[in-house]
Hints:
The structure is a single chain. The protein is of the alpha/beta class. Helix content is about 35%, strand content about 20%. Strands 1-2-3-4-7-8-9-10-11-12 form a ten-stranded mixed sheet, covered by helices on one side. A two-stranded antiparallel sheet has the order 5-6. Helix 1 (about 15-20) crosses helix 2 (about 30-40) and helix 9 runs parallel beside helix 10. Residues about 350-355 have low confidence and may be disordered.
Amino acid sequence: MIAPLPTIYSLSYAELQAWCAEREIRKFRAEQIFRWVYQRRARSFAEMTDIPESLREQLSQEFVFFQSEIESHQIASDRTEKLLLKYRDGEFVECVLMREPKRNTICISTQVGCAMGCVFCASGLAGLTRNLTTAEIVEQIARMVHLQDDDEQLTNVVVMGIGEPLANLPNLLPALDRLHEPIGWNMGTRRVTVSTVGLPEKIRQLANAGKRYSLAVSLHAPNDQLRNEIVPVNKNIGIKSILDAADDFFDITGRRVTFEYVLLAGKNDSIAHARELAQLLRGRQALVNLIPMNAISQLSIHGSTQETAREFVHILEQSGITATIRKRKGADIDAACGQLRLPHVHQQELHTLEKTN
């Protein structure tokens, strides 16, 4: 059986230069190709009209552009766009483009499924299948870039899609490096935010990577007893360990840490919870980002009201904690992380069950 061709996004600039050198292709061609792929948003090698036809043919014989297929493409009334991508092994991931007047932000995934088990999230309902490769992560970014109009530019990347990003650092960090190539997407590290459920040693590893990324810790509770219920992996970690690692991240990078807090009705949204959270974070250079929960039909838990969210913010601010409420994007499509993928996963499980019976 013939192995499928790799994607052109599997090559970094240095690797593309090496590919050219091995074939005795003149060095400047690597830069031309790289610019076409990243800056000029080429979708095929045939578009690279200032590159010799023989080289374009050679590229097409050794690489494809995309190794994924677009299974679903949803567009919300606010122009938020969400893709469900299907990879060669039949697995699915999601990525999102969110537009605002002066910024275009994309949200990308790092794993197929998730092992963290957060009670409000659709991503982990079917468990963890595998890590995404570097090329699969880069390809998501490229897909989002190609959704933009010619006069639009990508300004921000949040690694907050399906999966636990820090559990896949060996593949994630090289993918993020691709963002910063001067002859590529040329994005500064400060425009990239990496989210985590709170893996202390991985937080320190990210801090020591030499890049000034922003860190967002998915906290969701002000004490271990409650967090153990909302984020089950906390039983093996503990809030203190997470805060210690977040403090180290700030000391190493100088970047303020954001603490994400999904407000769940009757669960973690009381005045007492707000005061306890304020006490927990007092004295830290921190931002609390309160997140309205997207409704998920498979879950019985619900998000808090806007009035509750505003009161929560007020209590935090009175205590000297900077807090915001995340603006909801794509509310009229399957905007919740993992929500678009889940029906396809269940369909796969049904087919597998039918085959075994």
